[in-house]
Structures are given as structure tokens and as C-alpha cells.
Specification:
This protein is α/β, with parallel strands linked by helices. It folds into 3 domains: about 50 residues; about 220 residues, 2-Layer Sandwich (Endonuclease, Chain A); about 160 residues, Endonuclease, Chain A. Helices cover about 45% and strands about 20% of the residues. It contains 18 helices and 19 strands. It has a 15-stranded mixed β-sheet with strand order 4-3-2-5-6-8-1-9-18-16-15-10-12-13-19, with helices on both faces. Strands 7-14 form a two-stranded parallel ribbon. A two-stranded parallel sheet has the order 11-17. Helix 2 packs antiparallel against helix 3. About 0% of the residues have low confidence.
């Protein structure tokens, strides 16, 4: 009886705390409150492990990336080059994104589109083979036991023997089969490896916050980023989720210094006994492309990546084409995309036809039903599409790690690239329509054919969406 009373009092206090902390996200607050009311003990334990970014901010004061960025801003501050010209309607987009230290607009870059794992790994392997100075890697998933993971480890060991500096960051929970001991030979040869998070205890209380970025820097001159991790499934070898379509980009030019700085901040966050290196020098111009790096995380004051998505929706005049594996947006995104449609914008969305996570897929379908009712065209790819791309008005393309979901907006460390260029956007538009040719329209009739129990299950999934 006393135990029950303690639980009830604790949960009542926790509910009040949730109301205060999650006041900016009412849908998240409601989901947690329902869980705490109906499953007091389970809800209490889950909230301790998975709840609130505010808890993360308190726990991570020593390791805060935001703190590091503020401390080092004077050291790394660059005068923004306001001589770079953008069309008038994109000027405010630039200002919005430059609220973050690293998100300066650069020009003179070259960006290559890589539309699957084969293209990405083939290009990456060649650049690693040619490397002379340094290789920095940051991946959410690094499957060391997959064939592609073994190839990469062997290649990195070879480069270490040649005197190339190697640093690797991987997410501790991105793939549970990956162990620190898998990098034993890398470390023996002088390479450095840091799992996210910095300690087991810290990880237990931060299970919900994932380092979801995908980034490689080679010789301070080449950057790779996008949606592709290290694993055989990204080559379409998983028979359960096949075929697999994904998008990455290879970047050269002045912007590479910002990607390298992003890596340095993340490395220092995990290894604060080391000093931050000197300011990366902007590489020489290699092309004409203008772009901005967009990064955000649970300790960010603003939801930088989500804000960039919303701004694209807000200024679109002709079309918006979206590819995402998971579509679990918050209310602000739903409202903005509906407003864009009501304003006459052509909107097409491609999601997987073969899901990798059934629970998440059911939630995705519930949100898509709402959009289809609003006249937005939705298509299911004949396979699994992991690409995270937004294209608009023949000028702007967003490519990165961030899905259209609340988890990516609030809980994950994400990294996107915003590219301002007609030719590159037209290339992505062409690829989008190739994907569209391999997709089927998702109609209300198809959704309504679900059984009664399926509809109930989907409604329950949607209720828990803010916690997913």
C-alpha cells in the first residue's frame, strides 16, 4: 500500500513536470501523461530513460556541444560573406539557417549526387585509397561484421600503416552487434574510435538521443554526407527490405571546412581531454554551387533542420517533392504542408512500399491519409526508400540524415545540406521522377480497405507517435 502511494505521488509530480517541460510540444506531453496514468511503473521508468530533451540538457552540461560551440565561437568565428548572391525569395532562408555557427553560406563548391550504396561506396573507397593526410568518419550505423564493414576496416588499416590519421565516431546503439573490440586493430595501428555516448551510465539515461549523422571528411578537401550508413543492407542485400534506394552526396570546395568543423565539435564532445584543433582552412573553389550545412540535436536551442524544412514549405511557389522513409511530422509541419497545397503548390511524397519497421509504418500511413484527403499526392516505392530529400521550384534541394518525423526534429543529432543551384535541383528532380516511375499511388481507397482491427492498431500507433 505504501509502495503504491509512493508511485502515485511520484507519477503525479512527474505529470506536473511533464506539463512544465513539454509546454512547447503539447502532443508529446499528452502522450507521456497517458502512459504515466495507465501504466504508472512502466511509464515512470520509460520517462527516466526516454523522456525530455531538458533532462539531456541537465545531464550533459559537462559535455554540451552547444557549450563547446559558444566557448569556441570567438576562436572559430568567420565574417559571413554577404557578397554571395541568392534570389530574393531565398535570402531569408539563408539568414534563418545562419543562426547556427556552422551554417554559413559558401559558394564555389562542387556537389555530386550518389543515388545508392554502390555509387557511394565505390566513390568513397577511391577517395580513401588516394588519401594522404586524414580520414574522419561519423556514422549512426557501422556494421563491422557485414562484408562492406569489413572492407572498410581493412582499407582504413591499410591507410593507417601508410601514416594517414584516422578518427571514427559511431553510435553505440545504432547497431547492437557492433562492439568496441571490433575496432581493436584500428586502435592498435594508431587510429582513434569514439562511441556515442561517453559513458555507459550516461547512455542508459539518454537512450532516446541518437547520433544520426553520416559524415566523412578526407584530407580536409572532400566531404561525404547524406542518408547512407555502413552496412550491406544499404547495398540492397537484405532480402527482407529490397530493393533499397538511398541518397548521398560528395562535396568539394570551401564548404568542406564547415563539415570538418562539425566533426571536430562532435569529436571534442566525446573526447574533452583533447584540445580542439586549429581552424580548418577553406579549401579552394572547385565549382559554382552555393550550399549551407544544417545541423541540429537535442541540446540545440532551435530545431534548425526542421526550421529549414518549414521555410522550404513556406516559400514554395510551384512544387514540393519529398522522399522520406518515415513520415511522422509534428503539427507545425502538417499545417505548413497543407497551407502550401491550398496555395496551389504541387506536392508529391514518396515513402517506402516495403517497410523496415511495421510500427513506424502504421503511424506513417495514418499521417499520409490526412494529407491525401487534402489533395496531396502520395506514392509508395516498390521497395524501401531511405532517401531524405526535399526538392522545390527548380532551385533548392535538401539532402541529409533527417527524416520527416518528430524524432529527427527533436531527439537526434542530424546533419543536412541545403543546396542552392538550378542544375543540381534539376538532377534531383529527374531522379525523383525515376523513383516515381517505380512507385504506386497511395489512395484513400487502398487505406480504407484495412480491417477494423488494423484501423484500431493504427490509431493506437498514432497516439504513441510523439514517443516513437
Amino acid at each position: 500500500m505504501e509502495t503504491l502511494l509512493v508511485i502515485l505521488i511520484s507519477n503525479s509530480l512527474l505529470i506536473l513536470l511533464v506539463l512544465c517541460i513539454e509546454k512547447r510540444h503539447s502532443e508529446i506531453a499528452l502522450a507521456w501523461i497517458l502512459l504515466l496514468l495507465f501504466f504508472p511503473i512502466l511509464g515512470f521508468l520509460l520517462y527516466l530513460m526516454f523522456g525530455t530533451t531538458y533532462k539531456f540538457k541537465l545531464l550533459s552540461k559537462t559535455y554540451s556541444i552547444k557549450k563547446i560551440e559558444k566557448e569556441e565561437e570567438a576562436k572559430y568565428h568567420r565574417n559571413k560573406n554577404h557578397t554571395i548572391k541568392l534570389p530574393t525569395n531565398y535570402y531569408n532562408m539563408r539568414i534563418l539557417n545562419e543562426q547556427h555557427l556552422l551554417n554559413e553560406l559558401t559558394e564555389g563548391n562542387k556537389v555530386e549526387l550518389l543515388i545508392d550504396g554502390e555509387e557511394k561506396f565505390s566513390s568513397l573507397w577511391k577517395d580513401i585509397e588516394k588519401s594522404k593526410e586524414a580520414i574522419y568518419m561519423e556514422y549512426f550505423i557501422f556494421k563491422t561484421k557485414d562484408e562492406i564493414g569489413k572492407q572498410l576496416l581493412n582499407l582504413l588499416e591499410k591507410k593507417l600503416k601508410e601514416g594517414v590519421e584516422v578518427k571514427i565516431i559511431y553510435d553505440r546503439l545504432g547497431n547492437l552487434k557492433t562492439r568496441n573490440k571490433d575496432f581493436k586493430q584500428i586502435k592498435k595501428l594508431g587510429g582513434k574510435v569514439s562511441p556515442y555516448l561517453p559513458s555507459i551510465i550516461f547512455t542508459i539515461f539518454s537512450l532516446n538521443f541518437r547520433l544520426h549523422r553520416k559524415l566523412v571528411i578526407i584530407d580536409h578537401k572532400i566531404a561525404y554526407t547524406g542518408g547512407i550508413n555502413i552496412g550491406d543492407d544499404y547495398l540492397g542485400k537484405d532480402k527482407r527490405v529490397h530493393p533499397w534506394r538511398d541518397t548521398s552526396i560528395r562535396i568539394t570546395g570551401p564548404s568542406v571546412a564547415n563539415y570538418e568543423l562539425r566533426f571536430f565539435y562532435d569529436w571534442y564532445y566525446l573526447n574533452q581531454k583533447e584540445e580542439l584543433p586549429s581552424l580548418p582552412i577553406h579549401p579552394a573553389k572547385t565549382g559554382t554551387t552555393k550550399l549551407q550545412l544544417i545541423s541540429s540535436g537535442p541540446d540545440s536551442y532551435h530545431e534548425y533542420v526542421k526550421n529549414s524544412y518549414l521555410k522550404i514549405l513556406a516559400i514554395a511557389k510551384n512544387y514540393l517533392y519529398i522522399e522520406t522513409p518515415y513520415f511522422i511530422p509534428d503539427e507545425s509541419f502538417i499545417n505548413m504542408i497543407k497551407i502550401a497545397k491550398l496555395s496551389g503548390v504541387d506536392i508529391k511524397i514518396i515513402v517506402p512500399g516495403v517497410p523496415d519497421k511495421q510500427f513506424v509504418y502504421e503511424i506513417t500511413l495514418s499521417y499520409l491519409e490526412e494529407l491525401i484527403e487534402s489533395g496531396i499526392e502520395v506514392y509508395t516505392y516498390r521497395g524501401f526508400i531511405h532517401s531524405k530529400v526535399i526538392i522545390s521550384d527548380d532551385y533548392i534541394t535538401s539532402i541529409g540524415s533527417c527524416n520527416v518525423d518528430s524524432r529527427s526534429f527533436l531527439l537526434n543529432y542530424e546533419l543536412n545540406t541545403l543546396i542552392y543551384e538550378k542544375e543540381f535541383t534539376e538532377l534531383n528532380k529527374k531522379q525523383f521522377f525515376e523513383d516515381l516511375a517505380n512507385s504506386d499511388p497511395l489512395t484513400l481507397e487502398k487505406i480504407e480497405k484495412r480491417s477494423f482491427f488494423s484501423k484500431i492498431y493504427q490509431s493506437l500507433c498514432r497516439l504513441l507517435a510523439p514517443l516513437s
